[in-house]
């Protein structure tokens, strides 16, 4: 009970302070909307919130899913072959160094009007790097004794991968996935905000801006925060299920 | 000194092995000859970095010698084979598996006719032999270093290997835990006879556990000295403090010093 009530109180206190701040300073809602402005803004557009929220959600998840596939594949290549690691790694670092905000307009132009493809692509591009790096490090730092134990019994390479390398890499993988899920979410919203006549919560945010509906913009922020939290905790639950052993029990 | 017999379980015949490094060739083993009879237990000691671990890889088939041959039960070794069990200084237990599932790992890889219940019984039997009864379902992280090493020994023996290779298995343990595990080794040998090679840096350990101690020369390693150690049926730690044992330790110590200075010169 305590670990539900304590965060709940913290959120209530935070909202109250926010309300108080706006009220004391007598800020108009175009400077800073207060929590009491946000609910009406949400209610007015509730259908759009759910439709666009769904768009944002599935685009993020699909982008992340592709990032996991590509990231794990690249990570495996780099983890198992030193030569390929030396070849791919600088390219990856260089690609990752480009701020994705600058890639957004390029992709938006490249596939103009294809909002789903654009958005999924950016979500993928921004989030696969930490996954690739963590998997490759997890695999390449596998102590040789682990391999020798199985190899000396005549186990094949794929058996060693499934029995030892893969499970041993899972904690690192989930650590990276927690970072990646947040990044993918940022990527989705970047594209949705920039893409003209698009859908998704980012587009709703943008229409709030063009229509000077500031409470709507704040309501989108809150919706994004809730969605982001939900996505993050889905990863946490998956981590508990698949890599819970890495957590040392304290008793 | 090819004094091996055809029926010895482990035979190492004129083995030479060289590593290729960036600075050139590094010969680690040169013209090594040794053998271990069936159910014998031989300790190999020598200066640090003299090629002892390479020797374990050659016997387990993880490495092929450049020259010479390694035979296990009369068969020449060219690839790894499931009739070998290994334990290292690092117990390398799989942290996501329970202790019993760790012990059962080789049975998942080595072809065998046991059903899952028999596999479990086999693992349980070994675990209770080493004093880990009741810890079957614990995770490795819940066990002490000595207990983990016991579990690692069980894993090395669970598939009844012809040959057990121990590469400094007790090197990272404190002195008292180590002495406990020496007794565990004697129990295991009595209940589960195996042919074994023990790589160690501990001379007391070598004469307490093994029937024969071989001193390797400095790199490139070859057999420099050996001594047979007569064993009583119930070895006691006190036996290490008899004058006979102490003299044996002294002569081994002297041989190690010779090997060390030789290795220094070859650098």
Show the largest interface: A-B, 22 and 27 residues
CATH class of the largest domain in chain A: Mainly Alpha
Point out poorly predicted stretches of chain A: none
Distance between the termini of chain A: 20 Å
**Main pleated-sheet profile of chain A:** none
CATH architecture of the largest domain in chain A: Orthogonal Bundle
Structural class of chain A: mainly alpha
User: Roughly what is the average pLDDT of chain A, rounded to an integer?
Assistant: 89
Give the overall pLDDT of chain B as a whole number: 87
Multimeric state of these chains? heterodimer
Major sheet: arrangement of strands of chain B: 6-7-8-3-9-10
Rg over alpha carbons of chain A: 22 Å
Approximately how much helix is present in the residues of chain A? over 70%
Strand content of chain A: under 5%
CATH homologous superfamily annotation of the domain at 1-83 and 197-267 in chain B? P-loop containing nucleotide triphosphate hydrolases
Which outline of chain A best applies?
globular
Number of helices of chain A: 10
Tell me the radius of gyration of chain B.
19 Å
What is the helix tally of chain B?
Answer: 8
Structure description:
The complex is a heterodimer of chains A (251) and B (267). Chain A is mostly helical and 251 residues long. Chain A has two domains: 32 residues; 209 residues, MetI-like fold, CATH 1.10.3720. Chain A has ten helices and no strands. Chain B is an alpha/beta fold and 267 residues long. Chain B has a domain of 154 residues: P-loop containing nucleotide triphosphate hydrolases (Rossmann fold). Chain B has eight helices and ten strands. A six-stranded mixed β-sheet of chain B has the order 6-7-8-3-9-10, sandwiched between helices. The longest helix of chain B is centred in the last third of the chain and has 24 residues. Chain B is globular and about 55 Å long. The model of chain B has no long low-confidence stretch (mean pLDDT 87). At the A-B interface, helix 7 and helix 8 of A face strand 6 and helix 3 of B.
């Amino acid at each position: 009970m305590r670990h539900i009530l304590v965060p709940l109180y913290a959120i209530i206190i935070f909202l109250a302070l926010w309300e108080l701040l706006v009220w004391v300073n007598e800020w108009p809602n175009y400077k800073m909307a207060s929590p009491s402005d946000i609910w009406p803004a949400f209610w007015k557009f509730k259908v759009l919130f759910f439709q666009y929220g769904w768009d944002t959600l599935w685009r993020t998840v699909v982008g992340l899913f592709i990032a996991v596939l590509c990231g794990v594949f690249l990570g495996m290549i780099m983890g198992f072959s030193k030569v390929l690691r030396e070849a791919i790694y600088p390219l990856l670092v260089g690609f990752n160094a480009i701020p994705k905000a600058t890639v957004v307009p390029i992709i938006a132009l490249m596939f103009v009007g294809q909002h789903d493809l654009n958005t999924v692509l950016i979500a993928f591009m921004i989030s696969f790097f930490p996954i690739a790096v963590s998997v490759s490090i997890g695999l390449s730092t596998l102590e040789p004794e682990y391999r020798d134990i199985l190899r000396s019994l005549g186990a094949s390479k794929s058996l060693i991968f499934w029995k030892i390398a893969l499970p041993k890499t899972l904690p690192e993988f989930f650590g990276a996935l927690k970072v990646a899920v947040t990044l993918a979410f940022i990527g989705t919203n970047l594209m949705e905000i920039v893409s003209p006549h698009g859908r998704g919560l980012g587009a709703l945010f943008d229409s709030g801006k063009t229509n000077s509906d500031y409470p709507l913009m704040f309501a989108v922020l809150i919706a994004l925060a809730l969605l982001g939290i939900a996505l993050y905790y889905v990863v946490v639950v998956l981590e508990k299920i698949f890599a819970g052993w890495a957590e040392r029990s304290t008793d | 000194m090819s004094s091996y017999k055809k029926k010895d379980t482990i035979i190492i015949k004129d083995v030479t092995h060289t590593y290729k490094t960036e600075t050139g060739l590094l010969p680690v083993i040169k013209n090594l000859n040794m053998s271990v009879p069936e159910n014998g237990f031989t300790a190999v000691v020598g200066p640090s970095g003299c090629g002892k671990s390479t020797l374990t890889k050659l016997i387990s088939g993880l490495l092929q010698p450049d020259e010479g041959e390694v035979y296990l039960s009369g068969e020449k070794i060219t690839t790894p084979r499931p009739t070998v069990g290994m334990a290292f200084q690092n117990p390398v237990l799989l942290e996501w598996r329970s202790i019993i599932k760790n012990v059962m790992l080789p049975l998942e890889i080595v072809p065998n006719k046991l059903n899952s219940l028999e596999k479990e019984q086999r693992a349980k039997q070994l675990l209770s032999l080493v004093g880990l009864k009741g810890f079957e379902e614990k995770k490795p992280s819940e066990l002490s270093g000595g207990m983990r090493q016991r579990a690692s020994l069980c894993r090395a023996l669970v598939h009844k290997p012809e040959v057990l290779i121990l590469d400094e298995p007790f090197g990272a343990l404190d002195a008292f835990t180590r002495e406990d595990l020496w007794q565990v080794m004697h129990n295991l040998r009595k209940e589960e006879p195996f042919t074994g090679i023990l790589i160690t840096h501990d001379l007391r350990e070598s004469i307490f556990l093994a029937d024969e101690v071989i001193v390797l020369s400095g790199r490139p390693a070859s057999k420099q000295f050996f001594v047979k150690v007569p064993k009583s049926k119930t070895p006691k730690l006190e036996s290490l403090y008899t004058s006979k044992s102490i003299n044996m330790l002294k002569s081994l110590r002297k041989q190690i010093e010779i090997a060390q200075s030789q290795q220094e010169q070859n650098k």
